[in-house]
Write a structure and sequence with these properties.
Layout lengths: L10 H11 L3 E2 L29 E5 L7 H16 L3 E4 L8 H13 L4 E4 L4 H13 L3 E5 L10 E4 L3 H15 L4 E7 L5 H13 L8 E8 L4 H14 L3 E6 L2 H12 L8 E4 L3 H9 L5 E4 L2 H16 L10 E3 L5 E3 L5 E3 L4 E4 L9
Parallel strand pairs: 2-3, 2-4, 4-5, 5-6, 6-14, 7-8, 7-9, 9-10
Antiparallel strand pairs: 1-12, 11-15, 12-13
Length: 359
């Protein structure tokens, strides 16, 4: 898989820009205003403004405890905030479906005077009023991993493009089952924007003639709960005796499905892929339950989301399309339409490379 990132500038150009501008985030001519297209990006950015120190950046993950993915993202965010001279504060819920709790965490950070809030939305619509209130109070809002509506935040840091991520998961499973047979999807919560977007693109990909002998028979929801995901895996296998494969685009779901398959008669018969962490799935790759799966580096996602938050709070960017955000080592990212910054392309993990990663 190609590792070229079209959203980054070439290293030589980065060097020139760094020397010329000497700032954390930059933009082109800010005289034009696209606030009608993206209201939260209204106002003028000051690319040369100094990076503010002593800011309070609050991280609100979708799930704070027992989730290796969000733990890694949090570590990346904390390191970036600390290196930029500000204070990191994490305030998340224990459950990925505790939307009321997530709203309360955002409200608490706003009341405590946080300068920026970085949140992975459990429910995009339910969270919007709290985020809009935060922005009215001067808080800069960044979403990462799972987005809200664009008018409810300034910037969304996406792990990868949803289209590519959906297409490649279908392609990986199709190769494993020789492009024939019934398949199912084990998702997280029905309200999760990232999951719904991926599933929608998966359905589109399956319309391609290459997949004419494959049939999506069910989409199940484990709510990013380990026990519920185990049960849903069991239910899928009972409801569809001829099932050939499962895609689980959630780190909690794929781990639970791998655990169930590994100790069942279906091991080696029902293929499993999706999005997981190497540390969660290493034993299942080694025992043959999982052949290959995908993900991006969540620590880099947290790092970039934190840098976007500090740049917003420093006035260096507003979230307007065409502005530039600088990473620590990875060059520059362009803010795209609706304030979206895309991190990278997914990495495919298998028996040949899984021991090269530790997260």
């Amino acid at each position: 898989m190609s590792t070229t990132n079209p959203h980054r500038w070439a290293p030589a150009l980065v060097t020139v820009l760094s020397l010329a501008l000497g700032c954390t985030a930059c933009a082109g001519d800010d005289a034009a205003d696209d606030s009608a297209a993206n209201p939260t990006a209204a106002g003028r950015a000051h690319p040369g403004a100094p990076t503010k120190k002593g800011l309070v950046v609050g991280f609100v993950p979708k799930q704070a405890q027992g989730n290796l993915y969000f733990s890694a993202a949090g570590r990346g965010g904390e390191q970036a905030v600390t290196r930029l001279g500000s204070d990191y504060k994490e305030s998340g819920t224990d459950s990925s479906t505790d939307t009321a709790g997530q709203i309360a965490r955002v409200e608490e950070l706003t009341e405590q005077g946080a300068d920026a809030v970085v949140v992975s939305a459990q429910d995009p619509q339910a969270l919007c009023p709290a985020l809009k209130e935060a922005m009215e109070q001067g808080v800069k809002v960044v979403t990462y991993d799972s987005d809200t509506s664009p008018e409810c935040r300034h910037v969304f840091v996406a792990p990868v493009s949803p289209e590519e991520l959906a297409y490649t998961q279908v392609q990986v499973l199709a190769q494993q089952i020789d492009y024939a047979g019934d398949i199912a999807i084990l998702s997280a919560a029905q309200s999760a924007t990232n999951q719904n977007s991926w599933i929608s693109f998966m359905r589109e990909e399956l319309k391609d003639p290459r997949y004419r002998d494959m049939k999506l028979v069910e989409v199940a929801y484990g709510d990013d709960d380990h026990q519920k995901s185990l049960q849903k895996t069991r239910d899928l296998l009972r409801a569809h005796p001829g099932l050939k494969g499962i895609i689980s685009p959630t780190t909690v779901g794929i781990r639970a499905a791998a655990e169930y398959l590994s100790g069942s008669e279906f091991k080696g018969k029902v293929r499993l892929t999706g999005l997981g962490t190497p540390n969660d799935l290493r034993e299942y790759v080694e025992d043959g339950t999982v052949e290959a799966f995908e993900l991006w580096d969540p620590a880099r996602l947290g790092d970039l989301a934190a840098r976007a938050a500090v740049a917003l709070a420093s006035g260096q960017i507003t979230g307007r399309e065409g502005q530039l955000l600088q990473g620590e080592k990875d060059g520059w990212w362009t803010v795209k339409k609706d304030g979206v910054i895309t991190l990278d392309q997914p990495t495919l993990f298998n028996a040949e490379n899984i021991d090269d990663y530790d997260f």
